[in-house]
């Protein structure tokens, strides 16, 4: 059953779990209409205090998860700008052979695609647009592509196609690609501690198990509705925090990396296609 639920959208999963908790709370309502009415009563104030403490833990987890998601989005926005800047400088500031321009275009376009796959399931160089026929098979494809850029820079400098100042300008943009890659890897590899996440989930479960028994005496049949709504919010916060904590995946709440890669590719191709190279 859990595997079936995992395939549903996040909010649909939350509603199903909340309805299950609401159905469970019907047991507490039934008790109030049975001979066991006066047994196992709990003061509602206990659940108010417990809910407040639990809310603080949930807020902390959600904030940390969203900070990770937003930092990842900021980094990819920076990658969009860096790719465009790099393309403009190579295309318009330098007088380079057409073959070198085409190679740089392929590298700048291929880098975001390689980073996307690297952050997900791992990247093979032949999967990168423009490198399908490459015989190389590097372990870290994004770094390999940047190393190709630096190899070009070195040759251009040796052939006096670029000056020292121009080399420093190109190095600034290329080094930013590696910095973005490293920051994304840090986000992917440094999750919130598993013990903390398990602890929060256990607190949510225990609270929802005990909550109906503290409300049924005061709220009667309305307990089912109250508990279902409370479960929806608590489970929803937990599920959403877990979903956005890893922003590079394929889920609906993850970053749309395919869209960003296509955006970078379109912008870079437009820059390189604006005019014919000056030295072909």
Automatic annotation (TrEMBL):
GO terms for molecular function: chloride channel activity. It is found in: Cell membrane. GO terms for cellular component: plasma membrane. It holds the Pfam family Bestrophin_2. The chain crosses the membrane at residues 44-63, 222-244. Keywords: Cell membrane, Ion transport, Membrane, Transmembrane, Transmembrane helix, Transport. InterPro entries: YneE/VCCN1/2-like. It is a multi-pass membrane protein. The keyword Metal-binding does not apply. PANTHER family: UPF0187 PROTEIN YNEE, VOLTAGE-DEPENDENT ANION CHANNEL-FORMING PROTEIN YNEE. Belongs to the anion channel-forming bestrophin (TC 1.A.46) family. This is Bestrophin, RFP-TM, chloride channel. It comes from Symmachiella macrocystis. The lineage of its organism: Bacteria, Pseudomonadati, Planctomycetota, Planctomycetia, Planctomycetales.
């Amino acid at each position: 059953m859990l595997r079936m639920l995992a395939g549903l959208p996040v909010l649909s999963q939350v509603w199903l779990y909340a309805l299950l908790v609401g159905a469970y709370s019907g047991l507490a309502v039934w008790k109030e209409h049975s001979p066991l009415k006066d047994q196992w009563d709990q003061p509602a104030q206990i659940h108010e205090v417990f809910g407040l403490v639990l809310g603080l833990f949930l807020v902390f987890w959600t904030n940390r998860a969203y900070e990770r998601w937003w930092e990842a989005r900021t980094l990819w926005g920076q990658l969009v700008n860096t790719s465009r800047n790099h393309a403009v400088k190579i295309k318009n500031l330098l007088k380079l052979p057409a073959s070198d321009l085409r190679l740089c275009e392929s590298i700048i376009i291929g880098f975001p695609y390689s980073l996307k796959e690297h952050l997900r399931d791992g990247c093979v160089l032949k999967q990168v647009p423009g490198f399908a026929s490459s015989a190389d098979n590097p372990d870290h494809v994004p770094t390999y592509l940047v190393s190709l850029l630096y190899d070009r820079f070195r040759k251009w400098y040796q052939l006096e196609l670029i000056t020292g100042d121009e080399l420093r300008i190109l190095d600034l943009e290329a080094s930013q690609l590696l910095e973005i890659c490293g920051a994304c890897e840090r986000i992917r590899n440094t999750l919130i501690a598993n013990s903390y996440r398990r602890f929060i989930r256990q607190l949510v479960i225990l609270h929802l198990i005990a909550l109906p028994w503290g409300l049924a005496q005061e709220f009667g049949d309305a307990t089912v509705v109250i508990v279902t709504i409370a479960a929806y919010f608590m489970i929803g916060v937990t599920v959403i925090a877990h979903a956005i904590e890893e922003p590079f995946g394929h889920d609906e709440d993850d970053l749309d990396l395919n869209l960003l890669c296509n955006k970078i590719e379109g912008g870079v191709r437009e820059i390189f296609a604006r005019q014919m190279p000056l030295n072909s």
